[in-house]
């Protein structure tokens, strides 16, 4: 824990950092940092300023910056700049991040389950982001609703895009995480709950729980942190039958107890395609759906029933 001597001065709203960033208000606060909405005087662009509570030598922000500055993917909140000039006067270090005008998934789910059509789109966006970072040897380690941002469109509608944020405890093959007990209890993988090291499969597991919560409005493993952690070391989450077999297949593949049995991000994307196909066809008028079925039968007939069964699965 940081002492008074290791803590840095946290600026007040209305102040200016580095003679450049006008702070306009607090967007969020955590143990390691406070995030402000700010305006960059160089061009007037709105940004999010993540101001660290402690100097770099006393926390993991240097690792966070080294990892995130290598990431260029539209489904991940972009790092624009970084100031590492904490000094004797207590002026803080901070990261300049892309500002997402919208809500966290946590806030959206506080009102109940989300629209399944949106959840499908968000799942695709997030799985593509995980496929991107995992292919580069990067693990997020803290996938949860509060670390997923959903941009808001005009008239109050939510975007079909989801953005992953907060790489505070991320690790890579070159820059390991040295923290113990990292992650958030309700979304930890079984191997993390057992005190082991989580790789990319841990991110997949956590996202599987997030998707299930998004569809049902409740956490897959309710109860206190200890009870929840113990339960997931013993069994898979119970997937409600109302979600349908394709959603059930995807979530089951993402939340297997053994990491080696879980789908990768790319494999999960393939399973999601089946969810998308079934969901879209389920929302077509009967007349359009019947025409499509006739076309499928004609196109599949020469190939025999095995091919037809594969396409329909």
From TrEMBL:
<dbReference type="InterPro" id="IPR008271">
    <property type="entry name" value="Ser/Thr_kinase_AS"/>
</dbReference>
<keyword id="KW-0067">ATP-binding</keyword>
<dbReference type="InterPro" id="IPR000719">
    <property type="entry name" value="Prot_kinase_dom"/>
</dbReference>
<dbReference type="Pfam" id="PF00069">
    <property type="entry name" value="Pkinase"/>
</dbReference>
<keyword id="KW-0418">Kinase</keyword>
<dbReference type="InterPro" id="IPR011009">
    <property type="entry name" value="Kinase-like_dom_sf"/>
</dbReference>
<keyword id="KW-0547">Nucleotide-binding</keyword>
<keyword id="KW-0808">Transferase</keyword>
<dbReference type="GO" id="GO:0004674">
    <property type="term" value="F:protein serine/threonine kinase activity"/>
</dbReference>
<protein>
    <submittedName>
        <fullName>Serine/threonine protein kinase</fullName>
    </submittedName>
</protein>
<keyword id="KW-0723">Serine/threonine-protein kinase</keyword>
<feature type="domain" description="Protein kinase">
    <location>
        <begin position="21"/>
        <end position="280"/>
    </location>
</feature>
């Amino acid at each position: 824990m940081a002492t008074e001597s290791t803590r840095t001065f946290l600026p007040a709203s209305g102040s200016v950092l580095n003679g450049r960033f006008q702070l306009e208000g607090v967007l969020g606060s955590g143990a390691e940092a406070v995030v402000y909405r700010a305006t960059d005087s160089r061009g007037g662009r709105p940004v999010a300023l993540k101001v660290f509570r402690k100097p770099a030598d006393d926390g993991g922000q240097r690792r966070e910056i080294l990892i995130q500055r290598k990431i260029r993917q539209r489904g991940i909140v972009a790092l624009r700049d970084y100031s590492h000039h904490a000094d004797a006067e207590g002026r803080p270090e901070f990261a300049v991040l892309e500002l997402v005008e919208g809500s966290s998934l946590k806030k959206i789910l506080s009102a109940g389950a989300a629209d399944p059509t949106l959840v499908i789109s968000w799942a695709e966006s997030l799985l593509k982001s995980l496929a991107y970072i995992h292919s580069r040897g990067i693990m997020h380690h803290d996938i949860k609703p509060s670390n997923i941002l959903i941009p808001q469109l005009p008239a109050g509608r939510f975007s079909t895009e989801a953005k992953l944020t907060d790489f505070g405890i991320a690790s890579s093959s070159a820059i390991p995480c040295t923290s113990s007990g990292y992650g958030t209890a309700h979304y930890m993988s079984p191997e993390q709950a057992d005190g082991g090291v989580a790789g990319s499969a841990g991110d997949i597991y956590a996202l599987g729980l997030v998707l299930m919560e998004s569809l049902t409005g409740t956490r897959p493993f309710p109860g206190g942190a200890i009870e929840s952690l113990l339960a997931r070391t013993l069994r898979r989450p119970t997937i409600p039958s109302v979600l349908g077999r394709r959603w059930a297949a995807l979530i089951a593949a993402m939340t297997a107890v053994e990491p080696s049995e879980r789908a990768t991000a790319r494999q999960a994307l393939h399973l999601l395609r089946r969810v998308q196909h079934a969901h879209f066809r389920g929302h077509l008028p009967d007349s359009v759906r019947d025409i499509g079925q006739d076309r499928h039968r004609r196109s599949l007939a020469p190939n025999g029933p095995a091919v037809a069964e594969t396409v329909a699965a």
